[in-house]
Amino acid sequence: MTAVRRSRPAVLVVLLCAALGALCLLSIALGARAIPLDQVVQALTGHVPGPGGQAAENVVWTVRVPRTALGLTAGVALGLSGALMQALTRNPLADPGVLGVTAGAAFAIVLSIALLGVGSLFGYIWFGFAGALAASVLVYMLGRLGRSGLTPVKLALAGVAVTSLLSSLTGAIVLTDPEPLNRYRFWSAGSLAGQNAEVVRHILPFIAVGVVLALACAPALNSLALGEDVATALGRRLGLVRLQGVTAVMLLTGGAVAVIGPVVFIGLVVPHVARVLAQRAGIGPDQRWLLPLSAVLAPCLLLAADIAGRLIARPVEIQAGVLVAFIGGPFFIAMVRRRRLAEV
């Protein structure tokens, strides 16, 4: 019986990785042009014979593989940053989109286009990092105001207020300057389309460093969950832990937003699903498992939304960010209405 319980987490991870692999294959197979699954497999493993084989290979390798790789990379970044923020703040409503981090990155990127003429992805990323960090600090400071100090609901309200403000400022910039408007219209919906493999190579180093920093925080986050006094007594340097966590969130969110746009709610929904699965697998609230589970579940959600967006309104595509928001909005409302939030 003990051996069965110990094997549950490994089985859960294997099943989720298998589901992610299946979604990656579907993402490569499905699109505006219908390509048989056997030709997709042939294109991935070698050569597609017969007439039209070269065209199928070009579609697979130049369009769908980069799009899938981008969804995989950005999904890992957004899911892991959301789980990390919830653990750092001990706030079940924490999410890069809800707490203004995504809006801060988006505002800084648009500002760099309009005022400084930045035109390369490598330039966007740095401004995305700066905007994410500035928005995080602002929301945290606003959430601490008042007699009751920092609470989950106040932090969420501060995040909504900052997000609304930054979104309004971003809209004002793009309406007065046609150049950022043309780039912003498609990007702001949150999409995986229109990117190539070079884009993934640009953001991969930043996100890889963010993933390493986030996973390295897991033991300290388990101590922090017991309370700051207990964590300090256990020898945790909370200032260093928070600095490491904020750096990881900045790298993960800034890198993802710079490429796919401000996709919200992934970081909110995924960690809660990970906790439910972890509880059923007998893992409990162990961040050493919750963080990796979130990193696997988030790209599953993003790729599933992207695939659904291609199929629902063929030949027109619905952007993945729209479908994710459609799922995450009701989930966020349900979380806010839960009574026990006041006791977190």
Explain what the structure shows:
With 344 residues, the protein is mainly alpha-helical. The chain has a single domain, classed as ABC transporter involved in vitamin B12 uptake, BtuC. The protein is 76% helix and 0% strand. It is built from 14 helices and no strands. Helix 3 packs across helix 13. The chain is globular. It starts with a helix and ends in a 7-residue tail after the last helix.
Keywords:
single chain, 344 residues, mainly alpha, ABC transporter involved in vitamin B12 uptake, BtuC, 0% strand, globular, FecCD family ABC transporter permease, transmembrane helix
Into which percentage range does the β-strand content fall?
under 5%
Low-confidence region ranges: 339-344
CATH-level-4 superfamily name: ABC transporter involved in vitamin B12 uptake, BtuC
Which architecture name does CATH use? Orthogonal Bundle
CATH topology category name: ABC transporter involved in vitamin B12 uptake, BtuC
How far apart are the first and last residues' alpha carbons, in Å?
34 Å
Count of folded domains: 1
Number of helices: 14
Name the average pLDDT: 82
Overall body shape: globular
**Major beta sheet, specifics?**
none
What CATH first level would be assigned?
Mainly Alpha
Helix content: over 70%
Record field, number of beta strands: 0
SSE pattern: HHHHHHHHHHHHHH
InterPro entries: ABC_BtuC-like, ABC_transptr_permease_BtuC
Transmembrane segments: 68-85, 97-118, 124-143, 155-175, 203-225, 246-269, 289-308, 320-337
Subcellular location: Cell membrane
Protein name: FecCD family ABC transporter permease
